Amino acid sequence: MKPRALWLCILMILAMTAITAYYYPTLPEVMPTHWNYAGQVDGYGARWQLWLVGPVAMSAFLLLAMALPWLSPKQFEVQNSGATYGYLMAIPVALFGAIELFMLCSALGVKLDVPRVMPVIVFVVLILMGNPMGKVRRNFFIGIRTPWTLASEQVWHTTHRLAGKLMVGSGVLGLLAAWLGAPHWLLLVLMMAWGPLAAGYSLVRYKNLPQ
Fold first, then answer.
1. Which of 107, 117, 126 is nearest to 179 (CA)?
2. Are residues 138 and 42 in the same domain?
């Protein structure tokens, strides 16, 4: 990872550690940990689980991101994506932090519109990850890793350019749909439809390659 992305992740982990430690004594012993699609709490857990969702999960993902360059086989190195690799690895770290903040606010009695807030977070992540997707180089760990993208550099490149546009488009449409109060099933479709479309495109693109 580039130093900028590494330090950004470290700062986010330190910030969430400080926030968790500050509010931990005021939290109830048992707090909401899961919500259904209607925004109703359907799972509870001990307050110490907040550490797992936030600082522990964030640190674990950062360690994984630092290990992947060493684990990558030759000619498929994740670090070939340059600064894009660090950027894409920093987003899940931030996502774990956002999820913990969501749980923390709920435990502290802050009223949140769960059926809208969580999809909004997902759509923002889609936009952030989709924007640089076309810069991801062929590897075994991140990106659209179908048999056909891994078999062809050209298919990998064209598929990721399309996937980036689909992810950003899905994110923008999803934010608009959430703002307009669209039903949950439509939000779910917008979250997931880009994946099968990108995978299907990689197959079609591969089969149309010159022999």
1. 117
2. no
